[in-house]
Amino acid sequence: MKGNCTRLQVFVGSNTWLTISDRVSITGPGLSRETVEEELTLDCGEGGASTTKKKAPGTREFGDISVETLWNPADNVGTRQVILAIAAGTVSGAGNATLTLTNVGLPGSPLAVSVPVANGDTPAVWAAKARAALAANTVINNVWAVGGTDTVIRLTRRLQDGGIAHANDGTANLAIATGTATGITAAPSSTISPAGVAGYVNEENHHLFKSHFDNETATFWRIVHPNSQKSGVLVHATVKELGEPSFTPNETVKRTFVLEPTGEFLLEGSNIETAAFPPDVPAPVNFWGKD
Predict the structure, then answer these.
(1) Which residues are 219's β-sheet partners?
(2) What is the pLDDT of residue 34?
(3) Which end of the chain is more exposed for a tag (fewer CB within 10 A), N or C?
(4) pLDDT tens-digit map of 142-184
(5) DSSP 118-142
(6) In Å, how far from its chain's centre is CA 69?
(7) 7-74+203-286 sits in which CATH class?
């Protein structure tokens, strides 16, 4: 088989096909059963169709399949945890309000911060002072990014090394107490929204190839071109990789495989994507041909 098809799929049972790659090109001399009388040439151009030409019986040819896929895509950043505290109550007596941050892994936790407030400070005014005091605290600022507007005091967990989020800390809390001031409404409990979801660094992501290309078990494979005819080939074969590819994170890597037909089953032409297995193939994944 020759041409530039785009989808390589492997049969995994229960009428289910797993797409290995959506970018496939055929570069080998051909693909056929061991004993055939024709060689398949597949035209995968725009609106392409399948054509065949005769070849001597007994021919065995293997198609080299070049598979291009993205190895090691972007890391999963996860979700950064956010603590929300809401200021309430107008200051009726100057003094120092107290905000206490509790957080697993925070040095000195629970860590109290004094916030000087003035008589007459509205919730929005003293919330801005609280945000400034929290941000000025180096220990807190190293772990949490301080933000918010109006009466909202928001702490967003900073990313860990590698640029990924920490797991959620359900005990994290920012408590507000009136301290030596008066008029501030105490709020011993804050809210967490959203909760943190740990991210992860994608160290290795070529597992798609591992179970399907690095074994000797034959199964059904199909290559389908996304033209209107859905032309392609369905074959019972094993697959072996040619050479050892080198990987660069976050870059597309080209891997080349040899599709080796068992000589037991080959179907080519149009509508391969919807083609049914013959009635005498009850369990395609284990099929080795008719007696």
Answers:
(1) 237
(2) 42
(3) C
(4) 999 999 999 999 999 999 887 889 999 999 999 999 999 999 9
(5) -TT--HHHHHHHHHHHHHH-HHHHH
(6) 14
(7) few secondary structures
